[in-house]
Design a protein that fits this description.
Shape: globular
Low-confidence stretches: 1-6
Structural class: alpha/beta
Strand content: 5-15%
Distance between the termini: 44 Å
Number of helices: 12
Amino acid sequence: MTNPTTPAAPPFGRMLCAMITPFTESGALDLDGAGRLAERLVAQGCDGLVLNGTTGESPTTSDAEKSALVRAVREAVGDRASVVAGVGTSDTRHTIELALQAEKAGADGVLVVTPYYSRPPQDAVEAHFREVADASGLPVVLYDIPGRTGTRIEPETLIRLAEHPRIVAVKDCSYDFLGTQKVLSHTDLAYYAGCDEHNLALYAVGAAGCISTVANVTPRHIRAVLDAFDAGDTAGAARRQQRATPLIEAMMSAGLPGTVTAKALLTALDLPAGPVRPPLRPAGREARDGLLAAYEQLATYEDR
């Protein structure tokens, strides 16, 4: 058991971006655009990039595309940032195949979501994660997002899984602040806030950092929140987090998936993005205008 006053070591850095997957206008994988976007994100403060996750449209990309994306981003950023590859599926065998593929492609770690749709009980959830962690040499980030998967990784399950030497971190979208603090106080797991509105709150109670969707468009500001807290400027960190709230709400809580809103903003900013793949649909004009207004408001604050 770790000392609850000791922050978890950040195995992949503090500020990670849940990166979108750029496509060409025809819908093909845009590896050149992915490399350019990855370089921009790292240059503007990202310690790591999470690929092929929810924001990366993993349900609609092929295994070959996933591997190609990891290779392209690894080549673009070199050793300047960690690369974590999403490999989670509802099938344990397929998840293991993707983990081995990610290892060969140069990933530093794998993000493994709870098996979805089948809603396995906790003993099956635990067995799934252990089998994946046993299968490759890469460290594992558990992805707890019951709102999408239908199944929670219960705190007691996380505490048991923390005993595995390659299960090192959690991307937390559980919306269970008490449960998260319980796991933090009983394990050495590095927690990453997976919901941007929780970035500062979780960091303040010992999380390692965040895996941010909003960082696709404003990495410097997301980084500045953590930097201010680390410098002892807790009021400044809170102020920066509050300033980001309208954009976080517009991107994450206005009825559209973060993938859709991030790509709409990146396109408006003339940055690599491209269309979303069906069944997702692009943001309409009203939504795009609202997103851009929230972004510009935050950008004005950053320029001061």
